Amino acid sequence: MMKETIQTDGAKLSVYLQGPDWDGAPTAAIGDFSCKTPDSGLQALRAGIALIQKAGINRVVGPMSGDTWHSYRFVSESDGSAPFLMEPTNKSHDPDVFRSAGFATISKYFSARVPLAHAATSSPTATDAFEVVPWDGTNPEEFFRKVYELSVEAFSQNAFYKPISEPDFLAMYMPVVPMLKPELIFFARRPDGSLAGFLFGIPNYAEGSNPKAAILKTYASLERGAGRHLASRFHKSALKLGCDTAIHALIHDDNQSADRSVAEGATVFRRYSLMGLRLDG
Q1: Rounded CA separation 183/230 (Å)
Q2: Is residue 71 a contact partner of residue 234, using CB atoms and an 8 Å limit?
Q3: In Å, how far are 1, 54, 281 from 50, measured between CA atoms?
Q4: CA dihedral in degrees (33, 217, 61, 16; nearest 10)?
Q5: pTM
Q6: pLDDT in tens, 61-79
Q7: Which domains does the chain have, with CATH numbers?
């Protein structure tokens, strides 16, 4: 992924000139942002915007490290609880720096937590359309190849989607293999064996070696109802593993899974925002 880094005494950011499209228009992304003070951050941000304008690009999104496969979004509201594993973090003044440069929120997300004693009691209506089975824990590279293929198909219509190569995807996820628990990873398979969906969960190792929370990190489905069945199995399995809480991580406000999270009794504890700037007015 090509990027240009801007670094000053008090701030640093990366400019990705080939970011995802925004409403069908070519868009740059600004990510990897950090600053000691709002003034130093604004100075670096303006330098990044000038570089983008010079390249003839009129739209910018941020924070985003090139695409939505990598780190993106600011924490915009929080209950003050500690970050969970793989959650984006930032200083409280960072969103204000972007707003000072003319950025506005263009997409909103949240994370919520739910007691497993409650969430694990519900079961969706049985179906013959697919069967939910756990990953057997073998051949992790092949597992992530399957996840890649289904993700590309399931997420291709999402806002700010940008394709990623399979080798780049594997390079992102293979390092986390030692942390995986097959009991928190599931496939939904149709009667012919083809994949209808997957769910990738992981213990919240940010709590330590024996976490009490399990993170529902990502799931995707190609069949109606598959997501609900996958989430149900995840909740039940996490409870059996000794966890007491599930974290529904980084859900888009307008996603169907947002309504499902609320229906399952989850409580929002963090909100996030992706910001954008139109340089052509």
Answers
A1: 12
A2: no
A3: 20, 6, 15
A4: 60
A5: 0.93
A6: 999 999 999 999 999 999 9
A7: 4-108+273-278 (3.40.630), 115-271 (3.40.630.30)
